[in-house]
Description:
Blueprint: H1 4-11, H2 16-29, E1 33-36, H3 42-52, E2 56-57, E3 62-65, E4 79-83, E5 95-97, H4 98-109, E6 117-124, H5 133-136, E7 137-142, H6 145-154, E8 156-157, E9 172-177, E10 194-198, E11 203-207, H7 212-215, H8 218-233, E12 237-240, E13 242-249, E14 255-261, H9 268-272, E15 284-290, E16 294-298, E17 305-308, E18 313-317, H10 327-332, E19 339-342, E20 345-347, E21 352-354, E22 395-399, E23 416-417, E24 420-424, E25 434-437, H11 440-448, E26 451-453, E27 465-467, H12 480-492, E28 499-503, H13 524-534, E29 541-543, E30 546-548, H14 563-569, H15 574-589, H16 596-610
Parallel strand pairs: 1-6, 3-19, 4-5, 4-10, 7-9, 9-11, 14-24, 24-28
Antiparallel strand pairs: 2-3, 6-7, 6-8, 10-11, 12-16, 13-14, 13-15, 16-17, 17-23, 18-22, 19-22, 20-21, 25-28, 26-27, 29-30
Sulfopyruvate binds at residues 74, 212-213, 219-220, 264, 292, 315.
Amino acid sequence: MVDVEAVLDEAGLSNPKVREYVRYWAELTGAERVEVVGAADDDRLIAEALEAGELLPAGDGRYYSRSYHKDTARSEERTVVATSDEKDKGVYNNWRPSSEMKPLLEGRMRGASAGKTMYVVPYLMAPAGNALAPWGTGVELTDTRTVVLHMIRMARVGVEYVNDLEDPDSFVKAVHVTGDLENLGQGTPDDQRWFVTVADERTILHYGSSYGGNALLGKIAHGLRQGAYDGWASKKFLAEQYMLIGIHDKETGKDYHICGGFPSASGKTNLAMMLAPDVLGDRYHVSFYGDDIAWLWVDEKSGKLYGMNPEYGVFGVAKDTNEVTNPTALESLAEGTKVIFTNVAYNPTTQEVWWEGRTDAPPADVTGWEDWKGDAIADRSPEQANDPWAHPNSRFTTTLGNVPNIAKDYDEPAGVPIDAIIFGGRTRDREPLIRAITDLAEGVYDGLTLGAEATFAAEGKEGVLRYDPMSNRPFMAYGEGDYAQHYLNVVGAAKEQPIFAHVNWFQRDPEDGHFLWPGYRDNLRPLLWLIQLKNGEVKGHQTPVGIIPTKEELNLDGVEISEADLAKILSIDTARWQQEMGYRTEHLEQFPNMPEAIWEAHRRVEKALED
Length: 611
Ligand code: GTP
Ligand code: SPV
Ligand code: MN
């Protein structure tokens, strides 16, 4: 039996409630060793992981890992929010009673870490000293070393974040047990995995994966699901799947901050890392605050809406990351950054990595190259010739300090005032480049009806969206009606209201399918227009679904776009919108206690479209 007390003493972990928690789970999981880690342990843990073959070298100061081939993404069906009150049940949160889920998870986890080390990872999801830091404190227990290495990149880690809590019990208990990955029946009727947030007990129990958000519990389990529940229960804040950027205008000296939600793999990382287009670079600078999570609250002193990124790193999609789409991302994973790649293609001889879209074609000389599963490319049969080299959800994990356009004040406790909140999904028609919304209820209504096109025939009809309210569908912690009311309350309490907007970089030509808008760096242009609109410097053109820019107002210096394409992305297809309103009615009717203000906004838009 491991001497837990001695380990905790030696690590200087003094919080009695954390000690009790570690003792309980060390015994239940049967771990052979217990080790407390902090950020300073990174180099040693990297060396151990290389030695054990869990990481492979990918050039100087870069590392490569593979996950088990059936463990490569989140599983929405196996993810549950559990509480003791059925009133917390929503349409998307997969609610179950905690009295059922807790014993189930404890059963799965009992003895499951035998022979392994249980790492104790005290962490903070917030800049230290931030007003919301009390809700961002947690301790992850994990039996996988590479998970620790990811946590050190994605969160602030060390005993100093939990030792001096005002209420010693006010930390999130986040337990991760990997389980026997080869015998968990992933995706079968006998699936053994469970990813549970016991939200009213601030306890996260994840069993059966060592990949991404399933295992790095500070990220979406705490940063989104638990955070959202706590924000609602305390009435104090929102936890959203948003990116957060700053725009500095060198001419006026002013700074603006925009946050916003796009469903998973829809461009948050790209937007957050965006460089100003060359012709605008002399005047504007875009800075990165966050690419996946933002917590929003009203600052007590100024009465303004504030935001911060609780994370400390980026867990970014590798696919299509290249010099044109995202040069800043490439710099963030250059040699010496200690980046960890997961499930991209790898060449052990040259220590190179590659993924689809890194270059136009894969390396011509396939000697030494292995795909994400470790199979040699040279040995592929003709039928396998078109299989991707990298997994489509392969990722890179790098700490915020490596991002070249990181905001100077990203680690400051204050957070930043929010000027605008934007929503966007992948929609091939109907949604214009940008439409601005000045009314709070209409803005919230717009977020609640955010959707992305169904990508598989089986998932939906042509033109019918997979709705993803506020890009939070996989992270909803409580009922959607309560969520909408809480959102109205938090933002509504701010002295100055942010402007809302819906953006779309993905409209396509119906004939040849090309993207009508060049996207990426040029996405700054509609955002600059939005700020000008808020400042009263442009007027735009009022439509039933918001204000859209006139083509004269949009700065198009250096953009190559045809008149016809431009006209299309700056106009409203009323007939398609009227059709969409019917789907929206059905979507909103699923939620029993949607606030009347949201229904009123819906009816206003509906009526405006008829006039
Ligand atoms: P998660 O980390 O899963 O939450 O996703 P994310 O929203 O951060 O996604 P990410 O930024 O990694 O977007 C991935 C995909 O969107 C890639 O295939 C990009 O090439 C594509 N993408 C991003 N911005 C644009 C754009 O402006 N235009 C077009 N056409 N594609 C874009
Ligand atoms: C997402 O799926 O939206 C992610 C990756 O950002 S994960 O953290 O695995 O959820
Ligand atoms: Mn995400």
